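DM between two lab members

TW: hey, do you still have the histidine kinase entry open?
JB: yeah, one sec
JB: this one, 552 aa:
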Amino acid sequence: MLKHSIFLRIYTGLVILVVLVALFSYLLVQIINYQRAQEYRETLTDGMAYIISEGVARQNNPQQKMDWISDASALLELPIYYVKAEKVDLTRAEAKRLEKRKAVVRWDAQTNVAYIIMGLQEDPEHLLYIKADKITERQMKALPVFVLDYLVYYPGQEKKYLEKIQHYFTYPIEIQNVQDLPLDSEQIGRLRLDHSIILYRDSASVRGTTISIVSPIPSSTSEVLVMGPVPLFNWMPFQLAAGITLLSLFVLSLGVYGLLVPMQRKLRAVNFALNKMKTGDMTVRLPVDSADEMGSLASSYNNMSDHIERLIEAQRELMRAVSHELRTPVARIRFAMEMLAEEDDYEYRLQQVEMIDKDIEALNTLIDEIMTYAKLEQGMPSLEFEKVPLFELLDQVVIETEALKTGKTLELQAPPLHIEVDAERRYLHRVVQNLMGNAVRYCDNRVVVSGGLDEFGNAYVCVEDDGPGIPEEERTRIFEAFARLDDSRTRASGGYGLGLSIVSRIAYWFGGQVVIDESPRLGGARFTMTWPANRFKRTKSVERNESDNTDS
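TW: and the structure you got?
JB:
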């Protein structure tokens, strides 16, 4: 049973999702760390690339450039090569960085060696190529020397030119008073001996641990060159990233579980109710406590239960009514047959045969009514809607009724000839025919038939008479199968109590309704059936009526 549980599949899917996201997070962390490290290396070397290229550009001839490069290599304790640009294969992104006087850093993860490429503004045919296999305090303390060498050419304007080149550096570089720095006496003593110092600072902020390089300025005893603080690169540890990811997914899974549990509980209630229905118990109803799909499911189940319960009750009532209605003509036929067997008078025998024929015709009519009602009651019949000229149909029913020689006055208030409505012609004809027959049966003298479109754009047919009318408290019961307000009068007039029930069900399947009130002109009963004149453009009022019909 568990392997068929949708919720078990959902929970298994969540576990698989957690594993997949964990693997994805690992790859993502590795990619992000690599990209962050590459950007960190490049931003640290951009400023020095500009300063070194400026130092090379100031040399007057190639020999002096080579001497300056050699001195810089010795100072950094790193090999610096003066190579032709055509010998170095650059990507488009690397070429753009060199054009902006920034450095290109190529990192070899296997040997942990960085290859730094610097462009020369005054010598585009050559590049500086540095192999950095180690970064120690020696290299860091050498960086201020290149900056001071750059500032030597601008005596008295050092701060101005530092601001000028600041945008090449991603960290601060400025001249400060030594008294403004948090230095101890030993550090101040080392500065006085023309030694550079490195300051480490730990911080709980986003920057974390930072490094500042402080170097004395030869021409000043109170001011120093401060480069930094430079944040150290902080690798995002996989354990931390994976832990955060898994914790987030765990919390997400708990949230999903919390959302699924009420749904699972509601589905169990639906399953319990369906099992009860299989045993024949139709009394269970589900609470509709939300407007979502589960609430819609509960509402649909309740409506289905109501409909099934009503069908079963209607079937029972139909069986009782049918057995009762069939016994009368059958008993008359049996009595007539017995009389026929004992009677020798030819004329009398012909009268009995004629009565038997009428009873058989009554049986056929009753069976036809019962079959029509059963078809409409059990479920939606196969309806073939078409455009029906309303005047033509009403006029046809009036002519057919007049042919029965009822002796009643039939009046048609004809709708406009151009009005066409969407309907199943056979069933709409049955509606008007049943309403006309009911009105003729109970009117005193006059019946008026009308039809058309109302102010909401719905089609309607209306039949009213000048009879005694129908009491308001009986207007709902009259649509029940085999219902009779006056049993003796109904039998005398030849009704079975199914005509109005059939009208009610046809109205329902048309998407409309039938109502009874008092005729303002004739004083008797008025039956009005309305339904959408265009099935593809239903009005809100008709939709509300359909909802009311479903509830009833």
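TW: got it. Confidence is low (pLDDT under 50) at residues 487-494, 538-552. The longest helix spans residues 6-57.
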